[in-house]
């Protein structure tokens, strides 16, 4: 089943183009990471998907138009945009009451048993909780909603590493069951690497890379090359090259692993490394050739 | 301060977590509205605290002045007089407090959720903008008037209780004092006033405040009160008239002077629906309601476009 389908999705704010014609298709059971620099249009795209912003082009989420049918859509979709959007005045027990009152598929017991594993007390008000605890509470509410699609926009921004790790662990262990779909943006790319099934890079409102993690691992290879071998390695057209401790690390797209093994050990780059490479190429027109390969591959 | 929860303990999902509660796939709109109104009462406790406080302060004042007033009271008539006048004051005080709370509530209702970014949470739940705005409108239009009515009806009982205690030693027939109090009459008058004036006549005022609250990029108070002021000034300068001001005064003071005199008119007059028919045939009532509906519609549309500020 297709959960999200967008065709030439576009959004402008005055003369600024935030999302510049995105084609997107997310199938059921995927965990898609949306990665891009600040101002790339990630948040705008996600806001369009959850009905927070109007858009041009075609967009269907679970077969509905999010902008005009937000309230019906929210029975099957839930989202966390940004941390600490829970109202500060609300009591934890009241938050549970309210969500249980308005949401048709909210499992209160589930939310409560999740909360018992934290140090959050039901009598507390949100303003008495630490930032990490507010994130835990929000996650507890969202995980008990039994939604088909979960959209997370920087859900762990500003949290310490323990909370972040626990957040993603809970998401994977207690929530993700292979049928739900998750779309997430984050700057902490490295923490998401083994969580994602798909990765998408966005820059200046456009998709610059879109591939599954299986494909990612077979397509992109990284080799650390000794100075004397650099010229030979460059002949294989790496998409990016960087220097670490006097050695060159070359990143290849779609080059045979055996060919590269002649230089040194071959490994899969991290998403963060590939992201930096792609963004470097995007910003320097001199590497236009490399950039072309990318966008060709992104299709 | 508080350590994050133990990650190892929840690595294995509880068996209880796996059980899917069989919940209805649909929540009726009335239930969503009900919870949204309760939500407002959690957030704005002044909705019930302020009228209660007004009643409490009044009762305190009454209690302090009671020995002075009751001094030398020999007849039931005199005792009755002690109770009668302050009761109208109490009702006025409670209603006035509720009115002021209603104004400040309405100005903050759709602005506060944008200011504290919680709109992002509310919008993530299956509650439409219409239900949200209706729940917020019902506070000044229904909840506050009914609450202040209940408090205003309960207040004279407490007053009478105080007076009875004060008169215990005087030899007056306290039972007769209770019998002479026309609770039913007073309550009915009050209810009539509340429904017609606070519920219907003031609807466009609250509609306007909610609209400003939904729209204002900041300082909704100024945006609510500046435009009427500018219109009044412009009209005065350009046309040398003050129709707009007269219109506002008409809106604020109520539909008919007879309703102000209502406490002295007979109960039958009210029930005979003469006054009611007069009220319902006031054109200002219906134009007011149409304007209120237009403001409301605009506020609902605006909320869809609005995000945190």
Give, in spatial order, the strands making up the sheet with the most strands of chain A: 5-6-7-3-8-9
Low-confidence segments of chain A: 287-299
SSE order of chain B: HHHHHHHHHHHHHHH
Estimated radius of gyration of chain B: 25 Å
β-sheet strand percentage of chain B: under 5%
Count of individual domains of chain A = 2
**How many DSSP E strands of chain B?**
0
CATH fold descriptor of the largest domain in chain A: Rossmann fold
Task: Report the end-to-end length of chain A measured between terminal Cα atoms.
Answer: 21 Å
Average the pLDDT over all residues of chain A and give the rounded result.
Answer: 88
Number of helices of chain B: 15
Give a quick account of the main beta sheet of chain B: strands, pairing sense, barrel closure: none
Low-confidence stretches of chain B: 1-24, 257-264
Q: Which structural traits does this protein have?
A:
heterodimer; A: 299 residues; alpha/beta; 2 domains; 6-stranded mixed β-sheet; 4-stranded antiparallel β-sheet; 13 strands; B: 309 residues; mainly alpha; 15 helices
Describe the structure.
The complex is a heterodimer of chains A (about 300) and B (about 300). Chain A has helices at about 40-50, 70-75, 90-100, 110-115, 130-145, 160-175, 190, 215-220, 230-235, 255-260, 270-285, 290-299, and strands at about 1-15, 15-25, 30-35, 55-60, 75-80, 150-155, 180-185, 200-205, 205-210, 220-225, 240-245, 245-255, 265. With about 300 residues, chain A is of the alpha/beta class. Chain A has 2 domains: about 1-205, P-loop containing nucleotide triphosphate hydrolases (Rossmann fold), CATH 3.40.50; about 215-300, no CATH class. In chain A, the strands form 3 sheets. Chain A has a 6-stranded mixed β-sheet, sandwiched between helices. In chain A, strands 11-12-10-13 form a 4-stranded antiparallel β-sheet. The longest helix of chain A has 15 residues, at about 160-175. Chain A is globular and about 65 Å long. Chain B has one domain. With about 300 residues, chain B is mostly helical. The two termini of chain B are about 30 Å apart. The longest helix of chain B has about 40 residues, at about 75-115. The chains are: A alpha/beta (about 300), B mainly alpha (about 300). Chains A and B meet through helix 2, strand 5, helix 3, helix 4 and helix 5 of A and helix 2 of B.
